[in-house]
Amino acid sequence: GAAPAGAQDPPSVRLWSDYLNVHLHPKSVYVIRQYLHDGDCGSLEAFGQGESLLQDPACLEELEDRLHFYVEECDYLQGFQVLCDLHNGFSGVGAKVTELLQDEYSQKGILTWGLTPVLSAVGVMVGFFFPQDPQNSFYRLMNTALGIAHLSRHSSLFCPMSLSGSLGIK
What would the pLDDT profile of 123-134 be if each residue is shown by its tens digit? Predict the structure, then answer.
């Protein structure tokens, strides 16, 4: 039972990005402290919650610093691709990010992908426990509608994507 000599302990897994085989640059992952997945924090479930995250000057400054870090590394910046969940509060985050990109880089293209999960026949997201009670259905509908409206307004091209035909809305 002893580990062979020179073997290392497996790295601890704390974030979704820790599951990736490709290691991400530390500046490409930003942890939102108010909505940690392993703490006693609430979930980011409403469009307005996501939008208000980028009203915080510290969060906005951190996002701009990380963005400028990558933009300065580009030889010829052609544009941006934004992948955004539409069904939860991240649609509000994506809306503010695309607005920031449009304001700061108005001559560059912004291709935005609005993503929604697949619902099974019983109303549970495939792979996640997410019951479809009336309040969750309302939040999903409003987040998706507001996300589509805001993301398409601030993007050069907006493409909603889902493996179901209804964008995950019942």
Answer: 555 444 455 577
The domain that holds 70 is classified in CATH as: 3.40.50.1440
Domain count, the chain: 1
77, 49, 114: which is closest to 67 by C-alpha? 77
User: Which residue from 40, 121, 152, 136 is spatially nearest to 87, judged by alpha carbons?
Assistant: 136
CA distance 89 to 42: 12
Q: Tell whether 144 is covered by a domain.
A: yes
Is 50 within 8 Å of 89 (Cβ atoms)?
yes
Instruction: Answer whether 89's CB lies under 8 Å from 46's CB.
Output: yes
Structural contact between residues 101 and 80, judged by C-beta atoms closer than 8 angstroms: yes
Q: How far is CA 50 from CA 97, 106, 134, in A?
A: 10, 23, 21
